[in-house]
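Handout, section 4.2: multi-component inputs.
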Amino acid sequence: MGTESNIKLLDENGLRLDGRNEMELRPIKIETNVLERADGSAFIEWGGNKIIVSVYGPREAYPKHTQDIDKAVIKARYNMAAFSVDERKRPGPDRRSVEISKVISEALSSAVMVEQFPRTQVDVFIEVIQADAGTRIAGLTAASVALAAAGIPMRDMVVGCTAGKIEGKIVLDLSKEEDNFGQADLPMAVLSRSGEVVLVQMDGDLSVEEFNQATDMILDATKRIAQIQRDALVARYSVETQGGE
Amino acid sequence: MAETKQIVFPGEVIEISEIKPRNGVYKNREGKYCSEYFGTVQKGDDYIDVVPFTGHYFPRRGDKVIGKVIEIGPSMWTIDINSPYLNLMHMNDTPWKMSSGDIKKYLGIGEYIYAKVMTLNEIKESWLTIKDVGLRKLEGGHIISVPAPKVPRIIGKGGSMVNLIKEYTDTRIVIGQNGLIWIEGTPENILRATAAIKKIEREAHTTGLTDRMTEYLKGDAKNGN
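Output:
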């Protein structure tokens, strides 16, 4: 990130390495209730990212000192499989995944109606099986679908997207090469209807104008992604009614 | 295929016309009523509710539930009623006369009761009682479980749906608000009743279900025995 390199990320027509233009998202596919024993679950494929999210709870919070007397705690755990990246990732929590778990927990806490079930915890397990840039946002987007599928009361759905800067140009939804060799990366998540920001992080440098342009692009993209979330949730119920005995 | 009810997502604005919003609906900052759940909108005569497709049971005062004894103390039982919280029942809240210490003679670990949520405090601690008409220890029979939000559908308007199943399958059924259902009858009849309940569970979000269930149970009665 931020280092000068002679890798060309944009061709002469302004198209990116995978042939997308600057406003285009990678293909996104979400499936719900993929796990039998979870209260709610979702599988998301976002470009090369493959992530399974499972939700358990609300259940009594343990260890007991983590209980909050007047609200529920959301415990999200972001974990990357050792084989999810090019070079083997050493398994277990590290500085990066602890940070991502924290910001995802906080983003989800602002959507879930935590005050309705005091003293409990909601566990959200985000397992990255294959990583290809933008996993925190893909995981968060899928987590919100899994929470809705688990029947947990929420103010709104959480939906996220990234934008970044490559070769001096602001583009939407960075791929792995663009993330590694680009100049900036801006993951952001909002509540889908009200547009309130629940997560924003930035790696690299953007000017104020560039930042505003990037957030505008993200807000526009989240509307499209929110529709994919809703379609994924409904799909299960149109299938289910056709089932036999 | 039957039509489905209106499906809503968390945060979706719900049109309120004259009828009051009740469960599963909250007021957002602009004063509009929004759904809390991914579920269906159910309009009654007086109230409008959003019913989630699935979810945990949360105890409410006065609910009649089915619970399993998981621990016995000197004078209290700990009951699991499928909610995130543990529930207690004191020996004085039973119809039996006993002294503390030998309460497990009356109700042992793993046994089921049909009880009422007597009290519930701010931090959701609750106490159960079986000291009321119809409440008892459940002996024999078979327990099945469904998601708690589907219970009203299985009971039907004024008990119409469950009476239908009882009538056609010749079983005794007790439904707890928490989604546990006790069925007693011959093994074949229990299986038939279970199949019927699972069908309701799958199709709870469609309209005209009572009529279809009548058809289903009629056909089932013919094929079965």
